[in-house]
């Protein structure tokens, strides 16, 4: 075996690797089961030679053993999303050109017909595995390992291909920046078809020889129970999860609140990322847990790029500085470096940057400029720290000739006493180019009108940033990662 994840697991054989609903499993269990899965997948061939293996398994030991089994057989792992409807599963299976599908019995009904229609090998995780482990191939780390489909906040999902080497770079960067140790114990509550759950939580934990405790899916009460046990050292989540945990804490009685908060106090680090962390959420969480959330910035294509420090001052509303092994620069629309304090597009160079969009060479070529990956995110450096201004396409609104950050306006609107949450978008307008529109989740009993909001907002924002139109909604449209889908928000206004 040529990739370190497996070699490192061999050094930790007797340690617990995974705790899940199925039980507790050591690194030895993981090595043994994944080797049996690899043997089954190989089915007497020497090497899967980068065949794509799509798999749909709830979070737990089976998921991890399968992912490792695919890697150890020389395949490319294509994790599917447990909450996707059939057409989206079919899209990923077809686009990745998977030749094998592995399914947990819960998903047999939806996946077996796809396998039959496409004439693919179909394996159910309840099938017996070979007792004897066959010869497994040597895997060069330059080979493709994983295809993750991008969240789809913009355009049709593309398969982001990373090699074992890319994954190794993404993981080792975080291991050193966030001080992962064998003694760490993390609670895993994130989806396992997305980089955050796969790399930052699962693979970092297993690389470090730590324990990964997996919940089959996010449930605020269960998370609080585990936190209250007081044995976790790390927690990582997206902002919407922190919002749900805050709500559950607020609804608990004072004794319970104390044990919840005490559990947080026992941890050494709590991280937020994958979407902007509203400063108010950061502050509420700080009051509850005593933790100043470490916010970081990353993307499926690049791994993590910017992070607040493990030790030292963290700034609310900022994502810190470049992580180890990562070069970051900001450029203007002509590709020139911007002056300090001037917003620009984030571009990244690092060994963690992905290899290609799967079978989309044109899209891959377009995503790079002089060897730098163009993220499509806008940011500014202030006091040596990066502040994310949003997606160039969706979050930078061009109104009356001004470039306006949707995230900045959202931060201000959230401080209004009647606003629970909001999403700001630009909608095509004959007069302004785009007009600033805000979808608002209002607190119960609110009677907020456009007029009163505008006069309130004018005291806090330049007039061209003040929403020209508002719409009260029950919930904001979100993708499975809890990220607000801005195109769907814009559509709400187009329908009005
Ligand atoms: P994904 O590839 O699904 O992880 O999405 C990556 C995108 O999420 C980035 O391109 C950013 O637009 C956004 N993102 C990730 N982390 C942050 C953050 N800390 N603040 C603001 N946006 C973020």
Explain how this protein is built:
This protein is an alpha/beta fold and about 500 residues long. Helix content is about 35%, strand content about 25%. The chain has 15 helices and 26 strands. The strands form 6 sheets. It has a 9-stranded mixed beta sheet with strand order 2-1-10-9-11-12-13-14-15, with helices on both faces. Helix 3 links the parallel strand 3 and strand 4. Helix 4 (about 85-95) packs across helix 5, helix 8 (about 220-230) packs across helix 10 and helix 9 (about 240-250) crosses helix 11 (about 280-290). The protein is globular and about 75 Å long. It starts with a helix and ends with a helix. The structure holds adenosine monophosphate. Adenosine monophosphate binds near residues 195, 295, 297 and 299.
Report the end-to-end length measured between terminal Cα atoms. 59 Å
Overall outline: globular
Beta percentage is 25-35%
Listed once per kind, the bound small molecules are:
adenosine monophosphate
Measured on Cα atoms, how large is the radius of gyration? 23 Å
Total strand segments: 26
Determine the structural class based on helices, strands and strand pairing. alpha/beta
The biggest sheet amounts to: 9 strands, mixed
Detail the poorly predicted runs: none
Helix content: 25-40%
Looking across the biggest beta sheet, what order are the strands in? 2-1-10-9-11-12-13-14-15
Count of DSSP H/I helices? 15
What is the averaged pLDDT score? 94
């Amino acid at each position: 075996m040529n990739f370190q994840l497996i070699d490192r697991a061999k050094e930790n054989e007797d340690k617990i690797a995974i705790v899940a609903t199925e039980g507790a499993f050591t690194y030895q269990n993981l090595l043994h089961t994944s080797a049996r899965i690899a043997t089954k997948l190989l089915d007497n061939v020497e090497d899967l030679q980068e065949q794509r293996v799509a798999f749909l398994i709830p979070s737990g030991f089976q998921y991890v053993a399968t992912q490792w089994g695919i890697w150890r057989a020389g395949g490319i792992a294509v994790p599917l999303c447990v909450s996707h409807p059939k057409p989206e599963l079919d899209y990923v299976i077809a686009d990745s050109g998977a030749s094998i599908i592995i399914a947990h019995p819960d998903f047999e009904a939806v996946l077996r017909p796809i396998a039959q229609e496409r004439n693919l090998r179909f394996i159910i995780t309840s099938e017996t595995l070979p007792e004897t482990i066959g010869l497994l191939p040597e895997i060069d780390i330059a080979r493709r390992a994983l295809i993750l489909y991008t969240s789809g906040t913009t355009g049709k999902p593309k398969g982001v291909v990373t090699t074992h080497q890319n994954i190794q770079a993404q993981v080792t960067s975080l291991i050193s920046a966030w001080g992962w140790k064998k003694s760490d114990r993390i609670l895993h509550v994130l989806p396992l078809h997305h980089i955050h759950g796969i790399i930052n939580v699962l693979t970092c934990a297993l690389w470090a020889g730590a324990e990964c405790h997996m919940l089959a899916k996010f449930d605020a009460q269960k998370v609080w129970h585990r936190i209250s046990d007081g044995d976790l050292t790390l927690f990582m989540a997206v902002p919407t999860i922190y919002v749900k945990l805050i709500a559950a804490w607020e609804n608990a009685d004072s004794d319970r609140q104390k044990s919840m908060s005490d559990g947080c106090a026992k941890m050494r680090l709590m991280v937020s990322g994958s979407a902007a962390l509203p400063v108010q959420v950061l502050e509420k969480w700080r009051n509850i847990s005593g933790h100043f959330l470490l916010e970081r910035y990353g993307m499926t294509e690049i791994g993590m790029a910017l992070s607040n420090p493990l030790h030292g001052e963290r700034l609310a509303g900022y994502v810190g500085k470049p992580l180890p092994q990562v070069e970051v620069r900001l450029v203007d629309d002509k590709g020139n470096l911007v002056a300090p304090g001037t917003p620009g597009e984030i571009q990244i160079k690092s060994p963690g940057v992905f290899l290609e969009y799967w079978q989309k060479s044109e899209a891959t070529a377009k995503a790079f400029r002089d060897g730098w990956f163009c993220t499509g995110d806008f940011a500014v450096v202030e006091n040596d720290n990066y502040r994310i201004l949003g997606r160039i396409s969706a979050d930078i609104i061009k109104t009356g000739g001004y470039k306006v950050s949707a995230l900045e306006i959202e931060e201000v609107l959230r401080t209004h006493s009647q606003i629970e949450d909001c999403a700001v978008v630009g909608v095509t307008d004959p007069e302004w180019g785009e007009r600033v529109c805000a979808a608002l989740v209002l607190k119960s009993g609110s009677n907020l009108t456009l007029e009163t909001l505008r006069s309130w907002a004018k005291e806090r924002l330049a007039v061209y940033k003040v929403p020209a139109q508002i719409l009260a909604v029950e919930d904001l449209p979100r993708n499975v990662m809890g990220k607000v889908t801005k195109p769907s928000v814009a559509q709400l206004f187009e329908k009005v």
